[in-house]
Amino acid sequence: MTHAIRFHQTGGPEVLRWEAVDVGAPAAGEVTVRHHAIGLNYIDTYHRSGLYPVPLPSGLGLEGAGVVEAVGEGVTEVVPGDRVAYAGGPLGAYAESRKLPAHRVVKLPAAISFEQGAAMMLQGLTAQYLLRRTYRVQPGDTVLIHAAAGGVGLIACQWAKALGATVIGTVGSDAKAELARAHGCDHPIVYTRENFTERVREITGGAGVPVVYDSIGKDTFMDSLRCLRPLGMMVLFGAASGPVPPFDLNLLNTLGSLYVTRPGIAAYTAKREDLVAMANELFDVVDSGAVRIEINQRYALKDAAQAHRDLEARRTTGSTILLP
């Protein structure tokens, strides 16, 4: 028997339970991974709270790194003993070991530690598709990244800077502003005392930005639209403050024929060749030193509820991992 965090009803962090589970042997096309580290991501709180409904009872977590213990029939991607990491479904990463489809795991380069792998896969792959595919950042672009001191934010700021962009980022405190600045954010805006729309217009000489990367949702969405230049793209990839309410689409025309998209990692990594290519690009920018993975919080896996409390209270910065 092994242990995992599971929940039988939606709600606050208190619904998370530490339970004994029987992993069993991997079926055809599956692998069993013994975790060395597990990633904590904001989307985990959406599953737990019911914002993103899942069948119950359920495991939790989308990201981990460890060693392949066993493979099912027909698996050719990895062999027992391989160091691997993964991000994306199915749920169940909050576990000492688990089974998952073999096509979802990628081999972890020797230069990348288990802790780095668990801390960067979901957030790093998210930054990859945001910057390289959803809106392909070009040298000379000025971009706005909300939650610039968060896990995705710190990676995206560094990566955008390495691509030759000028980076504007919103943060909630002076300490987070300094953290973002140290990771490539040219213009951190402390939103608790500054109007970020006005500041973006000031920084860009009134022109606005070609793209906004917004993981906050309800509280920032409408003002983010007003930061865009004509034909700009609003990229909504999260809802930390709640879902965006319905609005009149004609507003997009009024503000300059804007684009709005709601991307997700599942679609971008649905094909294994895309997943592997994205992961390799992520590994390369980390290995080169262009992007540093900041693991600023570590919790025991069985203390996942406290990790959720701290994450939702915005007491965390950078990446957070759970240790079995």
UniProtKB/TrEMBL annotation:
PROSITE patterns for this protein: QOR_ZETA_CRYSTAL
Enzyme class: oxidoreductase
UniProt cross-references to CDD domains, sorted A to Z: QOR2 (cd05286)
Cited SUPFAM superfamilies: GroES-like, NAD(P)-binding Rossmann-fold domains
InterPro entries the UniProt entry points to: ADH-like_C (IPR013149), ADH-like_N (IPR013154), ER (IPR020843), GroES-like_sf (IPR011032), NAD(P)-bd_dom_sf (IPR036291), QOR-like (IPR047618), Quin_OxRdtase/zeta-crystal_CS (IPR002364)
EC number(s) recorded for this UniProt protein: 1.6.5.5
One term of GO molecular function: quinone reductase (NADPH) activity
Positions of the Enoyl reductase (ER) domain: 11-322
Pfam families, per database record: ADH_N, ADH_zinc_N
Domain of life: Bacteria
Keywords of the record: NADP, Oxidoreductase
Record protein name field: NADPH:quinone reductase
Source species of the chain: Aromatoleum toluolicum
